[in-house]
Amino acid sequence: MLPGLAAAALTAFLGSFGPPGCHDGSRGELEVLLPVLDGGGLRIDGFLDEEVWEHAALLCGFTQFDPVEGDPASQRTEVLVFLSADALHFGVRAFDDHSGGIRASLRDRDNVSDSDDYVRFVLDTFNDRRRAYVFTVNPLGVQEDGVWVEGGTRTHGGWGPPIDKNLDLVWESEGRMEEWGYALEVRIPLKSLRFRNVPLQAWGLNVERRIQRTGAQESWAPITRDEANALALAGTLEGLEGLDPGLFLEANPVLTGRRTGTRNDETGTFVRDDPRGELGLNLTYGITSNFTLDATLNPDFSQVEADAGQITANERFAIRIPEKRPFFLQGTEVFALSQPLVFTRTIVNPAAGAKVTGKQGPWSMGYLVALDDPAAAEQRLAVNLVRVRRDLGESSTAGVVYTDRTAAGRGHNRVAGADLRLVLVRRYTLQLLAAGSSTEVAEKGSLRRGSLYFAELRRSGRELSYGLELEEISPGFWAESGFIPRVGDTRMKAETSLNRYGASGALVERLGVSAEAQGFWGHEAFRQRQGRMESEFQLGASVSFRGRTSLFLTGFMADFIPGIEGYDGLFVGDGGSAAHPFRPDPDLFQGLFGVRALLFTRGLESVRGMLRLQWRETPLFDRDLRVPLEPGQGWTADLNLGLFLARALTAEVGLLHEAVMRRDGGGRASVATIPRLRAQYQFTKALFFRTITEYARQERAAPLDPATGAPLTYCEEGGCTLREGFAEARLLGQFLLGYQPSPGTVFFAGYSRTARDSGPFRFQGMEPMEDGLFVKGSYRFRF
Predict the structure, then answer these.
(1) Nearest 5°: phi and psi at 463?
(2) Is the confidence at residue 680, as pLDDT, over 60?
(3) Closest residue by Cα to residue 76 from 2, 8, 137, 175
(4) Confidence (pTM)
(5) Which of 155, 241, 354, 543 could connect to 160 by a Cys-Cys bridge, CB 3.0–4.6 Å?
(6) Strand locations in 190-234, DSSP E?
């Protein structure tokens, strides 16, 4: 047997020559005339031994795009593809000269790409190079799907593609481990895809492969980071004629039952509600092959997994919690903008909703309407969201957006905007957005208007990349259907990074340096060319080693120069006659330093990890006015470990700790510690048991005047309130048994309980605060 390095070199050499008749991606053979075959008797079992596969088109000649761009693939990959009357079929032979190193685990859906080997199919059914379906399969056939939207948010610190994994489609896949590697078989029904309604069409296609033990990423159509739009590099499936998904109608009834309990702090009793059940219904109808109508009635939006705890003890602005509700997740890419003017989690408790999404020619359109019934509102709110976007040239777009949130007789919030995204000279991207808002509060007789402007120029590049941003938001701007937590400021940002790459197999795969500068001005101060009120400069270095370990080091310096008017209403003292206005020394908040170290490792077979350590000088902020009160010094430690204990047993261990000390020995200002354990056993691809345990301890001392140590008081028309600290320590436990053979067809049974500890990590006198027992069942009928 050849030594390991020699075998790998031989495999890479032979991999550059495909079998006879294959479409060799490394040689630019990217146009595939797709054969139409009879797939009626085909079983999706991972065996590619049926005769029909002998007549399928063959794709070969993969090349590497990370860590060494343009090198021949480190392992040979062959992809078979054909079209049947009602589905698109893929077969894969993924060869590996070290098959014992293939990483594959039974995981829940949509959680394989960060840990397992996989093959990914990127399918651009409109062939517009702007949006594509993504189907990812690990060696055991576990699925992950989503939608790739150029111009969307990129993952992994800007390195990963902009894939939104919220999309859940019905498709089939199976995988088999072999001595020579692994095989995959995939069937994607035409009913699950949206595509143009024309007699003859072509679809964009790329196929990617990830080898987790080495970090190698390889693709059939060569990929380079020197292109701003990776979808523009894809190959094409030609000759798709007379495609007809047939009647597309899905009905998804959902039955839930729950019993909840809460503690009444006034009486000291814990009361459980009577058991209650609810029936909801989701409908999806394919108006045409490219337009879809979704409707929901009495939807169930109970989460089956608790959100991970976040530190809020010294936060200035609201924390964004991701959307997890299925009705709103479908088609979210249509409403994507460079600024989040649409954030559907602002629709708190909809009684009913409907939306239409699709594309006709160069026009993409989306309309969502919902009746929201939030607990704090006196009456239901009508929510309307409209988005229209037009393709320009090869990769550019222009669009408009309109949002309306109205309560009859009580007021409204409306936002209208227009955006433009231009891809210039293939690697430069210019994004522009302008929006205006109108907010009426009828009971106060007030009408508030404001504007938002955003511009960004970005250069994509494997070695050199940079970006420039300008954002201006007037004090009167308000987007109740979006997520814009900071208004009244103008922000400028510039960033750049330079990378150098090692040769194939080198110990150091990548060396990089980066710099970032960001400044904030008051809205009017910027226009009058006055001084900034906040700035930060960062300088970083990074190194990535063979074996998938990366280290990032960053140093930063920040200035805060608060305006006097920001402290209006804040007084030193307890609100008595001796109180006087609070005005800190602005020099205290300048030249604040910090350092951060970040370590990633994914090269170990059973452990993936991230460790972040940070020390920085930071202001202590007022929770309502969001202005700095006094300087402090903060330590942060954030540890996340993914443990792959067996093929079916995984665990995630997290520890987040932050402590902020007052300067000059003034004691601790705030502390937070959140350990979390999530463990899951996967009996089959569909059946699993999950448990989550999280302890959240957060404390904040009462804010004080740094000069005298006196308390602070906030006074307004209704009176004065002494600023106080807070302390809480809670333990969350959650258990869930789930069965999910396909999206929409599920059964869940779970129990969660939150208890309050008598003190941090005492585990004594635990008082139950809330609990809940729930069951949920649904079935996805497809006609």
Answers:
(1) -105, -50
(2) yes
(3) 8
(4) 0.86
(5) 155
(6) 200-211, 216-219
Give the pairing of strands 57-60 and 23-24: parallel
Beta bridge partners of 626: none
Task: Provide CB contacts within 8 A for 578, sequence distance 6+.
Answer: none
Q: Are the C-beta atoms of residues 436 and 415 closer than 8 Å to each other?
A: yes
Distance CA 183, CA 117 (A): 12
If we measure between CA atoms, which residue out of 55, 140, 53 comes closest to residue 90?
53
Kindly state the helix (H) or strand (E) to which residue 18 belongs, with its residue range.
none
| 539: nearest Cα among 477, 476, 616, 594 | 594
Q: Is 162 helix (H, G, I), strand (E, B) or coil?
A: coil
If one counts every other C-beta atom within 10 angstroms of the C-beta of residue 273, the result is: 11
Average the pLDDT over 329-349 and give the result: 85
For the residues 485-504, what does the mean pLDDT come to? Answer: 92
Which DSSP letter does residue 571 get?
A: E
Residue 675's pLDDT band (cuts 50, 70, 90): very high
**CA–CA gap between residue 184 and residue 44 (Å, rounded):** 9
Residue 486 identity (one-letter amino acid) = R
Rg (CA), the chain: 28
638: β partners: 612, 656
Sheet of strand 570-572: strand arrangement: 580-581, 570-572, 712-716, 719-722
Q: Find tokens 């839930």 and name the residue.
A: 256
SS3 280: strand
Neighbours of 573 (CB within 10 A): 18
The rounded distance, in Å, linking the Cα atoms of 537 and 292 is: 46
> CA dist 86 to 225, 242, 291, Å?
36, 11, 18
Q: Are 298 and 352 in contact (CB under 8 A)?
A: yes
- CB 612 within 8 Å of CB 638: yes
Res 2 pLDDT > 60: no
| pLDDT given for residue 128 in this prediction | 92
Helix (H, G, I), strand (E, B) or coil at 191: helix
Identify the structural domains of the chain with CATH numbers, from first to last. Answer: 4-241 (2.60.40.1190)
pLDDT at 3: 38
| Residue 714, SS3 per DSSP | strand
Rounded to 5 degrees, φ, ψ at 191 are -60, -25
